[in-house]
Amino acid sequence: MKIITFIAMATALSFGTAGFASQHETQEQVQHKWCAHKGGKHGKMGQKRAMHHANPMPNLMMVVKKKSGELNLTPEQQNALSAWREKSNPIIKQQVGKVMMLEKEIMAASLQGADKAALMSKVDEMLAVRRDIAERKVNCRDNLKKILNEQQYNMVVTAYQEHMAAKYQMMGKH
């Protein structure tokens, strides 16, 4: 199925506006289409898939948001987490869109016969953005460790691990 999806995307990209993405789309438009393609809609599920696609780092803030009642967060912790989210989310979303846009450009350029040096330059650019996303996710993890107490942080990690185990178990059954 992944091969079919790849072939369909590659074919669509080679024909420009006839398919998945056009040369004139913004990062947000490409991200929206990718999320719709992968998640059936451009909502939280599609955004999560796009984020995981852009980097494999754990999204611990998602767990904190879902489990905030169980974590018994103090008002100070809630304020600190909210401030972090407001500062970080727009940057990460922009970077995820940039990764997706660069992937589209790399695929189109490759299909159009671009030379290796030009392709690898774009790949390096994409990898730099992915690295920055990963670094920001590590910073987020470290910030969580400062804001949450040890028990709260361990609850978040355990909930994330359980979520991912269930997700991969479901994927294995398809």
Describe this structure in words.
This protein is mostly helical and 174 residues long. It has one domain. Helix content is 80%, strand content 0%. The chain is built from eight helices and no strands. The longest helix is centred in the middle third of the chain and has 37 residues. The termini are close together.
List the helices and strands and how they pair.
Layout: H1 2-14, H2 27-39, H3 44-54, H4 60-66, H5 68-71, H6 75-111, H7 116-147, H8 150-172
Secondary-structure element string: HHHHHHHH
The separation of the N and C termini measures: 11 Å
Radius of gyration: 18 Å
Q: Whole-number average pLDDT?
A: 78
For the record, the count of structural domains works out to 1
CA-based shape: elongated
The biggest beta sheet reads: none
Notable features of this structure?
single chain; 174 residues; mainly alpha; 8 helices
Give a brief rundown of this model.
This protein is an all-alpha fold and 174 residues long. It is built from eight helices and no strands. The longest helix is centred in the middle third of the chain and has 37 residues, at 75-111.
